[in-house]
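Re: export button greyed out
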Amino acid sequence: MSPEPMRDESAFLASYDPRAYDPVAVTVDVVALTIRDGALHVLLVRRGGAPYEGMWALPGGFVHAGGRREAEDLPDAAVRELAEETGLSGKDGALGRVHLEQLGTYGTPGRDPRMRVISVAYLAFAPELPDPEAGGDAADAAWVPVDALGLAESGDQRPGTTRRLAFDHARILTDGLERARDKLEYTPLATAFCGAEFTIPELRAVYEAVWGEELHAGNFHRKVLSVPGFVESTGATSDKGGRRGGPRPRLYRAGDARLLHPALLRPSREEEIR
Amino acid sequence: MSPEPMRDESAFLASYDPRAYDPVAVTVDVVALTIRDGALHVLLVRRGGAPYEGMWALPGGFVHAGGRREAEDLPDAAVRELAEETGLSGKDGALGRVHLEQLGTYGTPGRDPRMRVISVAYLAFAPELPDPEAGGDAADAAWVPVDALGLAESGDQRPGTTRRLAFDHARILTDGLERARDKLEYTPLATAFCGAEFTIPELRAVYEAVWGEELHAGNFHRKVLSVPGFVESTGATSDKGGRRGGPRPRLYRAGDARLLHPALLRPSREEEIR
DNA sequence: TGAGTTCATCTCGATATGAGAAGAACATAA
DNA sequence: TTATGTTCTTCTCATATCGAGATGAACTCA
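Workaround output, generated via the alternate export path:
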């Protein structure tokens, strides 16, 4: 059950006093990922005010809970914050084709020095998007290569990293990356990083960027085509060859599968098993 | 980032006024699963007050946010609610061996008729536990067979189901069951439903209860023993044969693997793929 | 004692995987 | 234009895994 039970609903509403409750704030934070120049990038904003002023953080902010403003659902808040703080337009615009899913909720006491804050984190997969423009409370906004953030497996950032992340956002980002790596194995979400039409080598580049390791081109090709519903051929062929030569690859679009069966397991997970 | 930035932290704290913020409540709800008599059961409590008085619901309640009471972390709140509302003792007692993980957060406006409530759901896997005793706000508490709740894939309950769940708890439970089914494929968490020592047929019964289908005993046996770190032999043998005959099965305990590789894929997922 | 059940292991064909090879198509530099 | 190197795509082949069925021994219950 949810809040404490009352003898009668109208009695509760009449006696309602927000000060009687522990003050809590609910926010959304978004881990937005994309591929740029063959490398995995995350969308970050630079904080325009205290605390952590000047540091980089995940885009996010308050959920409109319904007091003064109209109540909004959590995924709507995630899209709104993404749009507000980056200048990217919402569902109908550049953010129309992004995949959005809930990542997890972070509420450890003290994670925000001001008050008790419960943050619902969302994970977004986007095809290559334009550079963001700072808006809302952000002093700056940019796509940042994930490798440049020096993230350790523990969720901490390694010493010497220039861009330190505010709050516990390094942990949230680490969790988001792990989720993304897993999702690529069992779901066709790698196609969410590509345009409407893409080639198998492009798709392979997505896997290599997210997993951080090179794949066997021949086996990858065979595998992608053998999994039912992963991709479907457009019949067309790319009008250019590879960047450094090679024949013109064929074009595909995302299929109707929601799960990859069998899965595309990544190599060298031996270390992670125990 | 989290709450709206302030120019200065002390200025913020001085000007702090809870009424200036949208009133939000944060709760935890727990989907606690176990196996009883070969069937998957979920822990439910009967509501002692409005709204949804008399209906069944997931155990849960307010997170102590830090106003009047000491601030508690979200997983601690989940364990506390589980203990309070069921009479089961906490980390050191009957709840000591349960696996607990975050399931997701539910915050759609209107999901609680009283006010805006954000509920962080947790998923618990437990070995066979004693019958719960109602406590806290609960009028009753019981392990209920999941099949008796008439859950559809949509998260709704089928008409004619006697035990209707309060709030959106049918959806939360449906999501929890789906998570449990997935987790059994890639992780050794099925052992969390067993005692410290168990037999391969017992483990198979867990998979059959959660997945709702019978497995090939021979292949299952081969598979469990071939996955590194899933189970390790105790050298001992059960002192009784099967319920309806058969030789005494050998005893095993959980191994040190965190991931099953290769995974134990469940049959007949064809329908779910698209 | 006999009938039926279950554990544990094995066999066999079908399928999936990793590693490598090869030919054709293309970009780039000489 | 030619030469060189890269890449796409399709093979091959040995190995590993999987589903389905069969078998014999061990056990419970009537």
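Strands of chain B lie at 25-36, 39-47, 56-57, 60-62, 99-106, 117-125, 138-145, 231-237, 250-254. The button fix ships in the next patch.
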